[in-house]
Amino acid sequence: MASKIFLRRGKEESLARRHPWIFSGAIERVECKADSIAEGEVVEVFSSRGDFLARGHYQIGSIAVRILTFEQQEQIDAQWWQRKIQSAHDVRRTLSLTECDSTTCYRLVHGEGDSLPGLVIDIYGSVAVVQCHSVGMYRSRAEIAEALRATFGEKLTAIYDKSAATVPFKANLNAVDGYLYGSAEKDNVVLENGHKFLVNWEEGQKTGFFIDQRFNRELVKRYAAGRTVLNTFCYTGGFSVYALAGGATQVCSIDASERAVRLADANVALNFGEGAPHTSIACDAVEYLKDIGDKYDMIILDPPAFAKHHKVLGNAMQGYKRLNARALSQIKSGGILFTFSCSQAVSKELFRTTVFTAAAIAGRKVRILHQLTQPTDHPINIYHPEGEYLKGLVLYVE
């Protein structure tokens, strides 16, 4: 018998709109099968009148329940997991990603976007990398792994769990990264639009590679011909590889991490050999942008999330404004600026307003050429607009 959560009167309205979160302040009372609800437990949610609303993972925090199903007859069992993973796979097959020779890495499960809140799964060739952001998903890893094997069959040689840094630390899970199935080499080469990249999911950031910039890197390639390019916060050098492929005359990759800079160098060499017109510097990108003169006519600003939650939003927007103002004030006339925010707490409107303010500070005439977002394998649940976390602008600067 599942524990039951009853909502305060009127608080069921968001669930009627199929929003996948229930906040702790919406809960009136609980009926537990034990002394208390275990974090990660599947609970049933009811209105104040006792009407069934949903079933989901309970967790401690402001988001108290992450919804898995709105159907009362739908049980969260092995068959349910297989249906959900198969459904996600069907979407990627529709996107021509599952059998693509030129792109062998993609996102299979994107949390709320695939109605699996708290779960991310990225595919790198024949390896699936699982990242759990909730206790419920972490406790369901065995079922998730079995569902992956049922969906992919022999095409899947390994499943790696990389949740140690993403599960709630207060849950005291003592999570350790490791293989749930099979094994693989540490460094692997994947293809993205025909370009080669080294991926180390065991030691790299996120799941090993920033898959969400695939479409936007192609746009950099389109505009790079004959340009001198600065790629800040470069990490694996993805934008640098595409800029060189597009005919950039010189590319400079900047990152505070020496390891990231070495990885960018390795990826450039993997695609173009040792003689490519590419340099790299391990330094703070914000400091570097203080005085670059008019050396560059294409600049890429792709910083890490400045605002992971709304409490630090004000400081984050100051950071985005300062970063963009420095780039806009110094880029060559006729230059192109690619600027991004991956902070979910930052709306498209707020980001655009902040970049507008930066342009005014720089005193430059600026045109918006493109408004960018995440790729199609990072879908946005129409009932969960918060899932549109990546936003970007391509600017032409006179």
Descriptive overview:
The protein has 398 residues and is an alpha/beta fold. It has three domains: 4-69, PUA domain (Archaeosine Trna-guanine Transglycosylase, Chain: A, domain 4, Roll); 78-190, Transcription Regulator spoIIAA, CATH 3.30.750.80; 210-397, Vaccinia Virus protein VP39 (Rossmann fold, 3-Layer(aba) Sandwich). The protein is built from ten helices and 20 strands. It has helices spanning 13-16, 78-94, 135-139, 141-152, 214-223, 238-245, 258-272, 285-288, 313-330, 348-362, and strands at 4-7, 21-23, 27-31, 42-46, 52-58, 63-69, 105-110, 119-124, 127-132, 158-161, 178-182, 188-192, 195-199, 228-232, 250-255, 278-282, 298-301, 335-341, 366-373, 391-397. The strands form four sheets. A seven-stranded mixed β-sheet has the order 16-15-14-17-18-20-19, with helices on both faces. The protein has a six-stranded mixed β-sheet with strand order 2-6-5-4-1-3. The mean pLDDT is 94.
Q: CATH top level of the largest domain?
A: Alpha Beta
Q: What is the C-alpha radius of gyration, as a whole number of Å?
A: 23 Å
* Quaternary structure classification: single chain
SSE run? EHEEEEEHEEEHHEEEEHEHEHEHEHEHEE
- Could you please say which CATH topology of the largest domain applies here? Rossmann fold
Strand % is: 25-35%
Helix percent reads 25-40%
Give the terminus-to-terminus CA distance. Answer: 66 Å
Strand line-up across the major sheet? 16-15-14-17-18-20-19
Helix count, per DSSP?
10
Q: Residue ranges: pLDDT <50 for 5 or more in a row?
A: none
Main β-sheet: number of strands, strand sense, barrel status? 7 strands, mixed
Helix/strand class: alpha/beta
Taken from the alpha-carbon principal axes, the silhouette is globular
CATH architecture of the largest domain: 3-Layer(aba) Sandwich
How many structurally independent domains?
Answer: 3
Arithmetic mean pLDDT? 94
The number of distinct β-strands equals: 20
